Amino acid sequence: MPDTNMLDATRLKFGIGQSVPRAEDPILLTGRGQYTDDIALPGQIWCVMVRSPYAHGVIRGIGTDAARAMPGVLGVWTGADLVAAGYGPMKCGMPLKNRDGSPIRTTYRHALATDKVRFVGDPVAFVVAESRAEAKDAAEMVELDIDMLPAVTQASAAAEPGAPQLYDDIPGNLVLDFQQGDSTKVAEAFASAAHVTRLGIRNNRIVVCAMEPRSAIGSFEDGRYVLRVGCQGVFGLRAQMANEVLKVPTQQVRILTGNVGGSFGMKANAYPEYICLLHAAKELGRPVKWTDERTSSFLSDQHGRDHEVEAELALDAQGRFLAVRLTSFANMGAYLSTVAPLMGTANFWKNVQSNYRTPLIEVVTRSLLTNTSPVSAYRGAGRPEGNYFMERLIEAAAKEMGLNAIELRRRNHIRPEEMPYAAASGSNYDGGDFTALLDQTITAADLPGFASRKAASAEKGLLRGLGIGNFLECTAPPTKEQGGIRFEKDGTVTIVTGTLDYGQGHWSAFAQVLHQSIGVPFHQIRLKQGDSDELVAGGGTGGSKSLMASGAAIVEASELVVEKGRAAAAWALEAAVSDIEFEAHPESGEGRFLIAGTDRGVGIMELAARLQQAPALPEGVPATLDVTHVFDQAPQAYPNGCHVAEVEIDPETGIVSIDRYLSVNDFGVIVNPMLVAGQAHGGIAQGIGQALMESVAFGEDGQMQTGSYLDYALPRAGDMPDITFVSHPVPATTNPLGAKGCGEAGCAGSLPAVMNAVVDALSAHGIRHIDMPATPERVWQAIQSAPKAG
Predict the structure, then answer these.
(1) Pairwise CA distance, residues 755 & 692, whole Å
(2) Which of 267, 404, 530, 638 has the fewest beta carbons closer than 10 A?
(3) Edge-to-edge strands, sheet with 493-497
(4) Short-list 786, 733, 779, CA closest to 7
(5) Starting at the edge strand that comes first in sequence, how are the strands of the sheet with 143-148 ordered?
(6) 582 and 643 within one domain
(7) Which one of 596, 631, 666 terminates a domain?
(8) Cis amide bond preceding 161, omega within 30
(9) Least confident of 23-27, 297-301, 603-607
């Protein structure tokens, strides 16, 4: 249960519940941040990758002589060189099984292709030179002899008989034939249903487009591999690099990460370039740097989404849900990334339930390899999609059955008195007030006023639509997480954590937790998060779990600091340990140890300093207040909410604009409302991008047709509406802070809200469904081809 004393302490200026500005912002805004590409090590040299210009082909030869002869070149390597060096391949680590119980078929991806190229951008060689320009010139001189083969880019096409085969040992390109749920009971529910709604839904492929392209520096220092790289967690990346690839003890690998300009899942795991850099650094005895360029990152970064889904909902005559079924093709790309199969399988399964009383679920997903960039997690990683499918089904079912869609949601909501609720998805919801939150949303969004707004749009010749996105997200279960607290000699206190901030603002939020727990002055708190040498555990950042994991670790570590502090304060105050009390927030604002019944005491910062300065200490008195603690994981949490979007569509051009946007959210206890609202805004922006603009397109030959911002649209400031953010918190009971996570929820609410609004507007023309992205061309064509509803 949440600590009620902690929850009541929001009166503190820097405590939980306060909108404290991000501590890192002054550093970043004045240009003092340090991203990987900002680093220049002594003796540093440059790497440039040579990539396949073909989507599929057999490698007959790679000519490197001309490149080696170019000015400034220090080395050219191919896949054969790295295989000979004994590096292991990168592979998928998900323990998923086929429906027959057999294990998933995985790919074994070496840093450089050796036998075949399997997508445009597949790395085949790399060049290292004294300068970047020299390395680029030399890379252009590498000669590729590749026999082209037919390519396949869509998952359903890869499953067809006679489709191009990417691997001889993976027949039919099928890596996973996943099924979860009782097929017999689900089939019976559909057979006996009064009504069945079916929708074919395309979950469009997305380029991640992090603000900072990937960059890394490899070096070999004192017999250890050192990789400086932007990532989502140095502890996990070190384990992958050491155990899978470099085949050395983890102590021989160090991962260092500074500021990271976005990731959204894409930078979580190892990439081929990192192996190449470390190999060259060891061979040449100098640090080797590589920074991607935007066009190359479109090809080489892992993409997101990409599913073809048949979604079905069975209802009884009163509109109560009987079963939901998803049958999907999931595009894995040319190689399985670490978590690639998770999104369209387990995460569909967990999240399609949403906040509805749905007794039966079945998910059937065929995960297939194609000649495209590998796919991995992208903000939500299957969670927004599961909610999107359910919300589109609800809207379609309501129209087909002549029911009010809001009432249909209310009728099927899990009620507070049913908590804790054992969902068919296997989740155990600990709490939530879904109908009250929906009702609050309806009031805040002024749904009664929609008719007049629609009439005003019609007077301008515009179609207006309103869309609701009710959602519930199952966060990733928190892994073991470090919560180190270190009192430094300069009077600061360092939090050491295994999660990693790549834009979220962890420094302030974690400092607020520590300040409230033991009264350490907020402005004296620092955050250490990007050095694997500092860590004994770390789950990294992903799945909306950082505060639940690191926050809980900090709370528990704070209790250990107080425990040590009592023994130290007894020495400092010449009293018995049993007489020492601790007050986290006396009038002074700083945590203080006191002799019970007196005003004699010592502040926590003063006590830490006295321990450091003491020449000798009696037995039983700790030398420091420092603590290294590992929080043992808590269950998943279930952030939920409801978004409402209103759009206007110009039927003459197909242009969709978002006129109004509201989100009401239950994120449990919110540590920093300003940061949480910012996280919601970011997720909503990315959801709007996918819903209205973004989509990767490939030609028949596997060439990416959206390989730059000339052809790939991202939402700009002018495309974004004003976003109203409202909080409806129901504290979680499964972690010490009562938090539920918020990082991915913006996408989970915005995808259905925006697309339901688009379909609602187009329903005037008899249009029942349109796939993302609802671009002007696609909307205009839908209007032209659809008979107008009478």
Answers:
(1) 8
(2) 404
(3) 525-528, 493-497, 481-487, 630-631
(4) 733
(5) 116-117, 57-63, 143-148
(6) no
(7) 631
(8) no
(9) 23-27
User: Domain boundary residue among 631, 654, 670?
Assistant: 631
Q: Which band of pLDDT confidence, cut at 50, 70 and 90, is reported for residue 9?
A: very low
pLDDT for residue 477 is more than 90:
no
- R_g of the chain computed on alpha carbons: 28
CA dihedral 421, 422, 424, 427 (to 10 degrees): 100
CA-to-CA separations, 292 to 78, 132, 295, 714, in angstroms, rounded: 19, 11, 8, 19
Q: Do 298 and 712 touch, CB atoms closer than 8 A?
A: yes
**Domain carrying residue 558:** 4-31+478-631
Position with higher pLDDT, 786 vs 728: 728
- For residue 789, the model assigns a pLDDT of 52
Amino acid at 269: N
What is the percent of the chain with per-residue pLDDT over 90, rounded to a whole number? 92
Count of domains forming the chain: 2
Q: How many helices (H) and strands (E) does the chain have?
A: 22, 28
- What global pTM score does this model have? 0.94
Give me the residue label for tokens 């009250």: 436
* Sign of the CA dihedral running 631, 632, 633, 634: negative
CA dist 685 and 179 (Å) reads 33
Q: Amino acid identity, residue 497? A: T
C-alpha 84/C-alpha 80 separation (Å) is 6
CA–CA gap between residue 169 and residue 458 (Å, rounded):
59
DSSP string, 28-66: HHTT----GGG---TT-EEEEEEE-SSSSEEEEEEE-HH
Report yes or no: 413 and 436 within 8 Å, Cβ to Cβ.
Answer: no
pLDDT tens, residue by residue, 356-396 = 999 999 999 999 999 999 999 999 999 999 999 999 999 99
Average pLDDT over residues 143-149: 98
Same domain, 512 and 616: yes
**468 and 483 share a domain?**
no
The token duo for 616 is: 């000798």
Report the CATH number at residue 520.
3.30.365.10
Residue 104 vs residues 174, 220, 244, 341, 374: alpha-carbon distances, Å: 9, 36, 18, 9, 17
512 to each of 518, 522, 670, how far by Cα in Å?
Answer: 10, 7, 11
- Using the predicted structure, report yes or no on whether residue 733 has a pLDDT greater than 50: yes
419, 547: one domain? no
Nearest one of 288, 300, 298 to 127, comparing CA atoms: 288
- What pLDDT does residue 4 have? 34
Task: Give every CB contact of residue 189 below 8 A, 6+ residues apart in sequence.
Answer: 314, 322, 323, 359, 360
Q: CA neighbours within 13 Å on the CB side: how many for 788?
A: 3
Say which amino acid occupies 48: V
Q: Are residues 498 and 618 in the same domain?
A: yes
The set of residues, in sequence order, having a beta carbon less than 8 Å from that of 553 and lying 6+ positions away, is: 481, 482, 483, 497, 629, 630, 631
Task: Verify that 732 and 763 share a domain, yes or no.
Answer: yes
- 384 found inside a domain: no
> Mean pLDDT throughout 304-316?
98
Q: CA–CA distance from 58 to each of 54, 124, 373, 698, 700 (Å)?
A: 10, 12, 18, 20, 18
Residues facing 66 on adjacent strands: none
